[in-house]
Write a structure and sequence with these properties.
The protein has 2 domains: 6-67, Orthogonal Bundle (Helicase, Ruva Protein, domain 3), CATH 1.10.8.10; 78-276, Vaccinia Virus protein VP39 (Rossmann fold, 3-Layer(aba) Sandwich), CATH 3.40.50.150. The protein is 37% helix and 20% strand. It is built from 11 helices and 9 strands. The strands form 2 sheets. A 7-stranded mixed β-sheet has the order 5-4-3-6-7-9-8, sandwiched between helices. It has a two-stranded antiparallel sheet with strand order 1-2. Strand 1 (77-80) and strand 2 form a beta hairpin. Helix 1 packs across helix 2, helix 2 (23-35) runs antiparallel to helix 4 (52-66) and helix 6 (99-106) runs parallel beside helix 7 (123-131). It is elongated, with a radius of gyration of 21 Å.
């Protein structure tokens, strides 16, 4: 293996990743990971030669990215809210749009007991728990692999006011009523062509897709949630940008009032919420 400098490695990566919207950043992050150094080191020591093991590691990381694997999975982390979460192929990659769900939940008064359905990496539950140490949260998922990721994130971040339960949506909840239920459930139609593009190709399909034009799991949650909410308790759901009217109608059909849909930073419908009628 021919020795190369940091500067040459970055140039090589930029050529290999040509066409990506984040070529330079991706190249720097991959090389920083291979060297176990901060990005600033790359420009402080551009002529330093990579060792054979560093070169091999960098080649391996670069190949994964060239094949389209998301940076979050390659690096093993993704920032969400104020937290840095560990992620892998067993969980969805937390996205900025989902922070709207956290903002909406934090704006509600009188909340103490909260459930996060389909927690994945734990992003929503852990963000809420970190902001509201007095809240008691239950985070659920059907995937034991996802719950391992979420539980490990909670331990690493020192967040102790979240319990993790395995099961399908509200079926996983313990007895007692909640002030708030939040969820970012699967909401993409299985035939959506976007599933064969970008990061979605690598993420767990069970966490992305739902039958009935993407509404099957949202409908199941809307129907079951009233049995687990206090009168006046809130249900908050993330959904696709075209699904706002349909989700609002489902909430109203299931006995929720004060139903409204919130828009994300791209002005797309993203979160619909309602309060259980007293």
């Amino acid at each position: 293996m021919t020795a190369i400098t940091i500067k040459q490695a970055l140039r090589m990566a930029s050529h290999a990743l040509a066409g990506s919207d984040t070529v330079q950043v991706d190249a720097e992050l991959l090389l920083s990971r291979a060297l176990d150094k901060p990005r600033s080191h790359l420009y402080s020591w551009p002529e330093r030669l990579l060792s054979p093991s560093e070169h091999s590691c960098f080649d391996s990381l670069l190949e994964r990215r060239v094949l389209g694997e998301p940076m979050a999975y390659i690096l093993g982390t993704r920032d969400f809210w104020t937290l840095t979460l560990h992620v892998n192929r067993h969980v969805l990659i937390p996205r900025p749009e989902t922070e709207l769900l956290v903002e909406a939940a934090l704006s509600l008064a009188g909340v103490m007991r909260v459930a996060d359905l389909g927690t994945g990496s734990g992003a929503i539950a852990l963000a809420l728990a970190a902001e509201r140490p007095g809240w008691r949260l239950i985070a659920t998922d059907t995937s034991i692999d996802a719950l391992i990721v979420a539980s490990d994130n909670a331990t690493r971040l020192g967040i102790q006011n979240v319990e993790f339960h395995r099961g399908n949506w509200c079926n996983a909840l313990p007895s007692g009523q909640f002030d708030l239920i939040v969820s970012n459930p699967p909401y993409i139609d299985p035939d959506d062509p976007h599933l064969s593009q970008g990061d979605l190709r690598f993420e767990p399909a069970t966490a992305l897709t739902a039958l009935d034009n993407g509404l099957a799991d949202i409908r199941a949650i809307c129907m079951a949630a009233p049995d687990h909410l206090k009168p006046g308790g809130w249900l908050l759901l993330e959904h696709g940008w075209t699904q706002g009217p349909a989700v609002a109608a489902l909430l109203e059909q299931c006995g929720f009032q004060e139903v409204r849909t919130l828009k994300d930073l791209n002005a797309n419908d993203r979160v619909t919420l309602g309060s259980l009628a007293c």
